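Query structure, 101 tokens:
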């Protein structure tokens, strides 16, 4: 880990993780390009809405294909998440701390 945009040890690399709700295992990891400090997500039908706190946006990405429960404990599937739309307001910035959906 290096010096990221949010302090020592911060890599500045966000990811969406699919978890097994029974075992807590990470089933898949999907990199999120061009987000900063994204840490709240809500799934609605075929989309995942993610709070991009660093930029003051809500990013809508396509839901990645589900991973089977017997998959490796941690795997990266494909490339970065496919962004469908970015919702933002010019007035929102990092100090506004957009983090709840």
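Result returned for the query:
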């Amino acid at each position: 880990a290096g010096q990221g945009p949010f302090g020592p040890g911060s890599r500045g690399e966000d990811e969406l993780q699919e978890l097994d709700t029974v075992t807590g295992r990470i089933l898949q990891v999907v990199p999120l390009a061009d987000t900063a400090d994204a840490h709240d997500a809500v799934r609605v039908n075929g989309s995942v809405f993610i709070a991009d706190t660093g930029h003051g946006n809500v990013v809508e990405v396509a839901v990645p294909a589900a991973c089977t429960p017997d998959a490796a404990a941690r795997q990266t599937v494909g490339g970065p998440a496919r962004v469908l739309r970015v919702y933002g307001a010019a007035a929102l910035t990092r100090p506004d701390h957009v983090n709840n959906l």
